[in-house]
Amino acid sequence: MQQPGTLALQPTLEEIGTPLAEVTFVVLDLETTGGSPATSAITEVGAVKVRGGEVLAELQTLVDPGGPVPAHIATLTGITTSMVHGAPRIEQVLPDLLEFLRGAVLVAHNAAFDVGFLKAAARDHGYPWPAPQVLDTVALARRAVGRDEVPNHKLGTLAGYFRATVTPDHRALSDARATVDVLHALLGRLAPLGVTHLEDLATATDPVPPARRRKRHLADGLPDAPGVYQFRDARGEVLYVGTSTSIRTRVRSYFTAAEHRRRMNEMVMLAEEVVPVVCGTTLEARVRELRLIAEHGPRYNRRSRFPERMPWVRLTVEPFPRLSITREVRPEGQPPGRAEAHIGPFSSRSTAQRAIEALHATFPVRQCSPRLPRIPGPGASSCALAGMGRCGAPCTGGQDEVGYAAVVEAVRAAMLTDPGPVLDVHAARIAALTGEERYEEAAAWRDQLAAFLRGTARAQRSARLSAQSELHAARAVPGGGWELVVVRHGRLCATTTSPAGVDPRPLLAALVATAEQPDAPVLPASAAHPEETDLVLAWLEQPGVRLVAAGDHWACPVRGAERLTDPAATAAAVAAAGPTGLVAA
């Protein structure tokens, strides 16, 4: 509210700034004979002048570099020595190009490259460099487009992602036109973040915006110790959970140029406090991170938020069993603590389905979903798979329980003890398809096999640890002391670090007495998040870890899936089966 006696002043145009819709941009691209202006020369210039989303003018010309175009450059760009022979030299092109740039913001993708060549050419031929404001679309893209959206910030990748009207092809004008579309898309994304005027472009690519820099106080007073940290908003909602060997150092990095992920920048802007949880060991920190993510489901964490959604593949318990996907491991009439054959869990339902397809491709187990009676009903008919020899048709009496049980036992053995038959069938098929140069089909079979082997190995590893009602382990700490761990049914129940020079056995005994007591799971599932069990197993398998106490069954099947999960195992099987060519995962 204006106070009495004060003079109301209208802001000047300088204070308001120039809207981007009124700014003239010249989007430039150069083709050259190499990567350095000291040893290479320009072969083509392409430039597009735009304002308010409209193209005002274009400039394009080949340039004689004064020497031959290297063969690899000609292959990349399509510009040959004969094409540039007789074209104007760069000193003839520069006057028109510099006039074209006058009064505009110079835009280029990886601008340092193009500007470097132009400045060198201007210096070498006595032209003053106009020093225009330069905008690099690579730097803009790094702020506006996260790596969770695109694998990199190359022009071709961004043009495809933003559906540019022109596909870049390493020719100057085409690439400049594609960069125009990318520029407009990036500015559209940055507008909600306050980049709306010419003056905003000066800080648009600032890796540490002032608003984020002002949040650095959130790291004050945090412990320099291993543990977990939680970013929370003003309402106390957990936005993000992370872990580090030094909570203070890691949280500080969110307010520096080291952090450039767009989602993390958004998260930091919403955060009002950081809550630390100091942990006795790095293993405890990683486990607590998983548990907190599963508990709170923070919107800025993308991994491990929904463990209940990780599916398993099971062999059902019925007169004529089949393969199905389930969300949990259930005993289904089996002995207490054990279930029918299960593999997994898988990261997604589609991956679980690929594992099922691997088994269906190997064994003639039925693929229909209805529960079949022991005696077929009147009028029962078989499906096409029976006619193809891929099912014994128990639905019509074509196969009795005894005959079908032999098929089921083979499936069970592949899931629980020896996946060799599945590998053999797929290796032969991959070899045949590769020999016929049908690489896409071979890749599909390879991925199907990989999904099955990973799921089978994971279940076997999980069962090995989950069967341990009590497991104690220790690892020497550099400089003295021991990391002590108590695991029950695959769940980390207690852990701490003993001081250097102190006998760790009494501390371990106290740890065992106070450790959590989880309920026994149904194998092969564990009493913990599947990824927690994976973390504990990975820790136990580290060099220097000693098993202090463990029960029976601390082993995997001799011919189990773990021996085959390395892509080299599949490669060897394919090589033995026939022609090779597509064996890498």
Automatic annotation (TrEMBL):
The yes or no answer to whether the keyword Nuclease is present is yes
Which molecular function term from Gene Ontology is one that the record holds?
Answer: DNA-directed DNA polymerase activity
User: Where does the GIY-YIG domain start and stop, copy by copy?
Assistant: 224-302
What does UniProt give as GO cellular component? excinuclease repair complex
Spell out the PROSITE patterns in the cross-references. GIY_YIG
Give the domain of life.
Bacteria
> InterPro entries from the xrefs?
DnaQ (IPR006054), GIY-YIG_endonuc (IPR000305), GIY-YIG_endonuc_sf (IPR035901), GIY-YIG_UvrC_Cho (IPR047296), Ribonucl_H (IPR013520), RNaseH-like_sf (IPR012337), RNaseH_sf (IPR036397), UvrABC_protein_C (IPR050066)
The record's Gene Ontology biological-process terms are:
DNA replication; nucleotide-excision repair
Q: Which UniProt keywords apply?
A: Exonuclease, Hydrolase, Nuclease
Looking up NCBIfam families in the UniProt record yields: dnaq (TIGR00573), PRK07883.1-3 (NF005905), PRK07883.1-5 (NF005907)
Please give the name of this protein: DEDD exonuclease domain-containing protein
Q: What does UniProt list as this organism's lineage?
A: Bacteria, Bacillati, Actinomycetota, Actinomycetes, Micrococcales
